[in-house]
Amino acid sequence: EVKSRVWKSHAVFYSQYGMDSHIDSLNEQGGLAQRGRFYLERQNLFDAAHRANTHGWGQEAVHLALAALLITDLQGPAGAAVPICRRALRHDVSPNLRAHALRMLGQEYRKIGQYQEAEVLLEQALELCIQHELVESQGYVHTHLGNVFLRRGGAEKALEQYELGLGCYRKVGQRRAEGIALGNLGVLHLGQ
């Protein structure tokens, strides 16, 4: 119980302080010295994720891997956290957490241009979401699949995925995600 809380709080800390606004506030408050310490903490996060994986702490390993994906999304290099996340997904975790990790990993593969692998991971996430009725997560997966199809030149498939995502968001009342989905549809229609 205590170990789990410590590792989760570690992951939450990194996911919060990895956001652009927090990095900007670090610069305002302490300049380069603070930012340098933050980069050092990034390595600590990677080390903590490795340790959780090594000790078989599945849930903690996945939470830390997700935090590592968020940090590398902001600081780079792209794809640096992929091995950590891949290893963490070997553990037995809840369907919701697994679906979330698969979605985030699929998104990372899309960002580094490995669209086939992204599609495979996102399809796995979608299967879990449907099987366990994770409607909001299903909407996010549809959106990310739409992004993959769009990058691969499949505007029709992207449109279908964006509309499916929009339906999920509306079903659960997720207004922010609904707005993003409508924006994606608008951009897609403007581009055609």
Explain what this protein looks like in three dimensions.
This protein has 192 residues and is mostly helical. Helix content is 84%, strand content 0%. Helix 1 runs antiparallel to helix 2 and helix 7 packs antiparallel against helix 8. It is globular, with a radius of gyration of 17 Å.
Number of strands: 0
SSE pattern: HHHHHHHHH
> What value does the average pLDDT take?
81
Strand content: under 5%
Note the total helix count. 9
* N→C terminal distance: 53 Å
Low-confidence stretches: 1-35
Rounded radius of gyration (Å): 17 Å
**Helicity level:** over 70%
Shape summary: globular
Please state the structural category. Answer: mainly alpha
Largest sheet: none
List the helices and strands and how they pair.
Layout: H1 2-17, H2 20-54, H3 58-75, H4 82-88, H5 95-111, H6 115-131, H7 135-151, H8 155-172, H9 175-191
Helix pairs in contact: 1-2, 1-3, 2-3, 3-4, 3-5, 5-6, 5-7, 6-7, 7-8, 8-9
Short description:
The chain is an all-alpha fold. The protein has 9 helices and no strands. Helix 1 packs parallel to helix 3.
